[in-house]
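Wed. Picked up where I left off yesterday with Ribosome-associated translation inhibitor RaiA. The coffee machine is broken again, so keeping this brief.
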Amino acid sequence: MSTVIAAMITAVVGILGTLLAPLLQQRMTARQRAEDVLTEDRRRRFEERRAAYTAMNRASRQFHTLLKDALHRIRDDVYADEDRARLEEARRDYRDRYAEAQMIVPERVLEASRELNTVLAGIDAMAKRIDRGLQRDGETAAGALLELKEAEPRLSAMRRIMREDLGIFD
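Structure written out below (tokens, as returned):
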């Protein structure tokens, strides 16, 4: 190969390198931006799930606690309007957190929350019937308290599944 051909090849490679460098840089920048957007989207979704889990866990535990308190007060015949209002507020908050979570959490979390919801809603309905004097055969506050114990392992299971979904394993 002559020096002229070698010089021409070198010149062509140099010109191509000069022309292609900005294109390669632009492509690398676009790829990095796309990765950054994807990373930010994952982080945002994680934060949404974590906030939903925190709110749902807090609301379900609060509803459970106030339901248990209500049943004790009904049993002891000291249930007052203030207690009813607090329980109703907790029930509504729980319902709202449950509805919000349905839009963003995975199905296995929803399944665990549905199992808990079935118990809590059933006991809440029973407590309201007992409070109004419309209880069904065999329904008592003491019996409802025993049935409410079914919610405790469901609360724990739901919390465990939520933590696992967030990457927290014990």
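Quick read: Residues 8 and 14 are 10 Å apart (CA to CA).
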